[in-house]
User: Fold this.
Amino acid sequence: MASGFSESPDGLRYAEHISAPMRLFVGIIGLCMFLIPVPFVMHASAQTPWPHLLLAAACVLAACAMGVLFLVIALARVLTLQFDAAGRRVLRTSRWPLDSRHAPIGFDRFAPPDILERASEDGPNYVLSLAVHGERPMHLGGFDQREDAERWRGRIAALLEGHRS
Assistant:
């Protein structure tokens, strides 16, 4: 499983990725979900019994809720973290399809990274948890092997600890 972490001359980098074709596919499904209620609305009339109208309303609401969910997924933000050792900060970029937001975070605001184990049908999945004081922790990457998660946790911890002293 790809973790999203990479190392370059610029430092450590974490980047989530949703490809444009995947966004388009999920967006089209989301828009099409709004077409599902059309027959329910077309066949409803004043003579339709109220229990049938309630069932039709439930179907319309469920399909529209699923459409909204798929559109939110298609337009969701993508998180990028660039660890800048020289500047003693992490540049957090939240990229939306039409805009991006950049927020530098000083190394001194981070708590030591931790590894969370999540159970799944395919076995355990390991996630790197990186907490910023005063904010909700960021859950980064998905690792099949605990050793991979430990390696990246160690790299990030060493980078953050090296600048605390």
Observations:
- The chain has a mean pLDDT of 88.
- The first helix runs from residue 20 to 33.
- The longest strand covers residues 78-84.
